[in-house]
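Convert to structure. Protein one:
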Amino acid sequence: MTLYGEKLPPADDRPTVQVTAVSWPDDDPAPAVTPTPAQPGPARPGRRRLLLAGGIAAAVLAAAAGAGTYAYAGDVPRGTTVLGTELGGRSRADAVHALRAELDRRSTALSAPITVTVGEKSVEVKPADVGLAIDVDATVTAAAATEAHPVSRLVGSRTVHPVVTVDAARLDTTLTRVLGDQGREMTMPAIIFTGTTPKPVYPKPALTVDPTAAADAVKAAWLAGQPVTVPLVEKWPATSQAEVDRLIAELAKPAVAAPVTLSTDQGSVTIPPAAIARGLRFSADDAGTLTPRVDVKRLRAALGDRLAKIEVEPKDAGLTITGGKPKVVPGRAGRQVDATALSRDLLAVLPKADGRTVTATLTAAEPELTEAKLTELGVKERVSTFTTRFPGGLSSPRSQNIIQAAKDVDGTIVKPGETFSLNAHTGERGYDQGYQDAPTIVNGKLVPGVGGGVSQFTTTLFNATYYAGLEDVEHKPHSFYFSRYPAVIESTIYWPQLDFKFRNNTPYGLLIDTSYTSSTITVSIWSTKIYDSVKTEYGPRRDITQPKTVYLDPGPKCISAEGSVGFAQDAYRVITKDGKVIKREKFSWRYDAEPRFICAAKPED
């Protein structure tokens, strides 16, 4: 085919352009005369040029229109590929279909386990076990996003990476299991008082896995079909050692340097440094940010009868066991210093050397737990009880510490959904709180320490809650096995690092009732019975190790020990209801072999 004497190239997929001849006015101007009929004659040169120019312009416009139509065909720009599959020019629905077909072809490769290395340990991880998947809809949406200019859509090419998802919680659980004992927990900063002396607990970093970076690395390795190494990282608490030292210098030490006067319209009370130390708390949140506050409840307990001359403390309704049944003890309203204002204002004057006076207003104070609310909790029967034995009689310091902890906890009511913390309930167990020096385990050996023996009460309380079927939140067994405790099902405690916590996961309130004799401590839980039974099934002891003999320098601080074997063991809490086992919960622990400590010089070979 020819146009204006020129030969056209062979037909292709470009739009076909047709040019239609049109009439144009003369190029040269003419005088105004009376129109006469048009005479035939040859076309003038200017006219031919306009005809040709107009035809070319129309062709270009039509070609551009056709190219635009071509470029914008489909939702996904032309030249776009995902996983090697061309999605360009397709509608979203067609692109989704094509991508799913490609994933089906790759299903064997995408389901193959990948090797994940954490520190020095490796594990084969199945993608489905951690929720690795390609979000097809999100990937197609990303593929459809492009610049609006038609040229880029017409001639551009690009590769779009698929959108990969992973179940963060399941992946974290897997990585934590692989991490095992390679990692370490973060040591939170703290400031604790021994008497009126503030002592720092400096922060130490956790050695752990960065969840975000680990997830990104695992997703990339899965797509590439390659093994991946997840590095261990240090995660520091938000409060540094320098900040702990600053808080001690600027607040903790000045706080207990002198008393504070509490002034009200009913008179004044002197708050001594010992009471200030009891009420001033430094608490770290989950990020490790250390924040000071005044715990007014603890301050009131430290002041004892001092506040009685200016205020009447409200009393919660309580429960007591009479004749084998719980009986409600009525509460009463009171008139007290506003706790929020006192905490704020006292904290403001504690750093000062002068002007250590707080003016407070007395307001009506209602008990938190009234008789009506207490009755609604449904505490009506004993659901569990546990007893352990201790040697030495009531006169020994260790026995006194056990009894003091029992007194601190006796009568505590835990509402449905609440979590009980033994450390939070008793606070620091120091001399001012009635605790004495007794043997405690520090760095693998027995040394004198204030509050030694409280672990026996902790174990007794833990077992009472365990056999009540309550939720275990936090506990840690001893490093060494002691025959006076049930293996595995026992717990130590150490202020402030180690705690014992349980949650009341029942719809009823519960009462903690403690009692003791000259050789036993008993904890009972009263509530409404839910389960038929809660029992323990033990697996066999394994990996038994024998103790070594260690000679220590003799002296008043040296404590000998007979030693004990080390072993690992599993215990299963089996809970039945309506004649069926509804839960079988595994508890595992490994005890180190306790050395045989001898307070004497090592004999010559």
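Protein two, convert as well:
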Amino acid sequence: MKGWSVFGLGEASWPERALFLVSMAAMLALAGFGFARPAALTSILNGAFDWTLRYFGWWFILLGFVLLIIVILLTFSRYGRLRIGGPNAEPEFDVFSWLSMVFTVGFGASILIWGVGEPVSIVQNPPPSPVPVDGASMKSLALAFMFIHEVFPGLAMWYLPVSIAFGIIVYTHGVGEYKISSMLTGLVDEDRIPGLYWIVDLAAIVATIGGIATTLGFSAQTMASILGQTFGLKANFLTYGVFAVIGVVFLADVWLGLRKGIRNAARATMYLIGVSMAVLVVVGPTLFTFQLALDATGVWLSNMFRLMLYTGPTATGHWAANWTGFWWAWWAAWSIFVGSFVARVSKGRTIREMFVILVLVPTFLTWIQHSLIGGWVLAPGNFEPVSAAYAAGGTPAAIARALTITPLGNVLAVLFVLVITGYIITSLDSAVFMISAITLGDENPNAINRAWWGGLLAFFGMMSLQISEFEAIQALSPTLALPFTLFLLVILFAAYRVARKHAREADEINAEGDTLISSQNRNTKNEGDE
């Protein structure tokens, strides 16, 4: 028992200990292979990426559309009034803290990284003919695709299904164990298929690690490129040092817990985002940015369904699968831990309130950020050098180049590094919180177990610096997310059944209350007549 306490598993059951050991060993082996043979891992990841999106890119696109319809129907039906944790549950966090945790955890550094990488890449390599929108400039179309993928409907498709299902089944319905497999309660009897729940939790942990590792990889390489090209520093060595500092802050957050650690890191990151975007407005090509943003917004809103369902079936290549398919796969990989984390911090809120904080408000915030970042790198005079850097070194090099040609670029670079650091800390905090919670079945997992998972994820982030091709890192998400796509539909069906049950109970209580009030009113009237 004492030996297991070293891993924070002293009170855990044997299946939970096995879950920790198997998933930890598998991911350590993958990370170790990446350190030892980065070229071989790059080749494997690229192959898996190409195969997944070539044959299943259409599936991710279709599933995203289906999930969007289901989520909207659930949110704006009578089920949208259901409260996470039951009708008497009280919110644990104020609105700003709640929004900060949801926003910084749910989007990571992707807003900055892909806000530069995707528009530049699409202008360089546009959709094959026939293009999805006639008459739009390629820069406006590129930014419109960015809005589709990370503003709306991307925000509504992937996180909310898990948030709704986890919140209703685990909290409102009161399922005992705080695990991903708990969302199967009422659909599949664990005793009838031994080991199924354990396998689901293992797959959830691996998919979560894959999703967060992708962002850690993007963030690590971007940070290294900014430090190296903008400040002329020894990038990789310094980035290891930054990760060491992040590790210290992370461990402090682990001991502080959810309310003080993750919440305060998220709030600080939100302030840094606001400052960095304000500086970008001042030093960037403001007039062009505003004009492009409005034009791209028109393309986006006027052609939303056309762009989100675009597959280019008669065109050569797999352009749509490699963009929209990849994005939806990445969202799917993140949906397990972000969705369950959002449910955790949303106790006391209704499903409609979750829709506002997870979709509507972030839609406005991400629209502003992507408009500013996209206008900055696509502006005449900026696009040419940024595009050349992208062709030579990928997205990290493009971001670094954009900073070097921007007035007060050093100030902006410092802010970007701080924002990326904040995203890493909040994402790492929340990811290990949920991984540990899934492992132990406890919504407040102990700090020791969380520290072990945090060390594993930090190890993945440093390993990514050994992978020469930036694109190889992105293969983890779609490859590990594919098996979970059907699971998302299953848990939504389970959530619907539970929501219907609780809605009926609420209707019965209301009906009884109305009957009691009517009876009291009649008695009062009779007494008055007497």
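The radius of gyration is 24 Å. The chain has 20 helices and no strands.
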